[in-house]
Amino acid sequence: xxxxxxxxxxxxxxxxxxxxxxxxxxxxxxxxxxxxxxxxxxxxxxxxxxxxxxxxxxxxxxxxxxxxxxxxxxxxxxxxxxxxxxxxxxxxxxxxxxxxxxxxxxxxxxxxxxxxxxxxxxxxxxxxxxxxxxxxxxxxxxxxxxxxxxxxxxxxxxxxxxxxxxxxxxxxxxxxxxxxxxxxxxxxxxxxxxxxxxxxxxxxxxxxxxxxxxxxxxxxxxxxxxxxxxxxxxxxxxxxxxxxxxxxxxxxxxxxxxxxxxxxxxxxxxxxxxxxxxxxxxxxxxxxxxxxxxxx
Length: 296
Description:
It is built from nine helices and 15 strands. It has 296 residues and is an alpha+beta fold. A hairpin with a 6-residue loop joins strand 9 and strand 10 (211-213).
């Protein structure tokens, strides 16, 4: 079979969100297949692969076609309590024994921050390139993931706002995003770990050259701006960037693998019944340099 990628919504969003077919990503790819997938990512920003029964090992093999993998942060879990391996982010509601987390469990409360719009690893000096999320067990309803096209969002800004955004630098930290949902239960060690890092507000994609907004709930202020003004401005930009015309909502099926470009998109998870299992495994392809270096 030959790899084929088509737009999920060719009428409303012909250049955002594609579904790939004709390839078994549980098996090693040829160089041509990997290059075609990367080309599809440049065009669509988000790719969906249905019915891919991946193991953690085959998911890592597939992901490494596109770069080096980040070590999994797994939120607040200590390494000794991680359910999954060093390169697999545990995007589930399960504890180390694969039991559903209690409603008041600290890890669950922290994870609710993923329901805010964000870009993976924007709180790291060198943020992520691609994220790849595999659906192992899904709840009976809910739990969708929504994606926003930050390229189209930038393109649709008026010239005055584009000029205002140009050159601005934001500070990103998980301390900022969790504060928005009222979570402040951090140890001093965690506060050091989540110290803010600087990121450009406008990025130029390394492959396509297209400009996009680089936003996230992790962005808490703009360097040189009063904090209230900065947060109001960032909130306006996020509201603009997440209009329905820019958003693709993915309704998960078991064994879907969804791959997205953090350099051109923002995403968020949606609510589901917390008493049901939702077991998702994510690999993350690291970026090559900081956004500050990109600007230079």
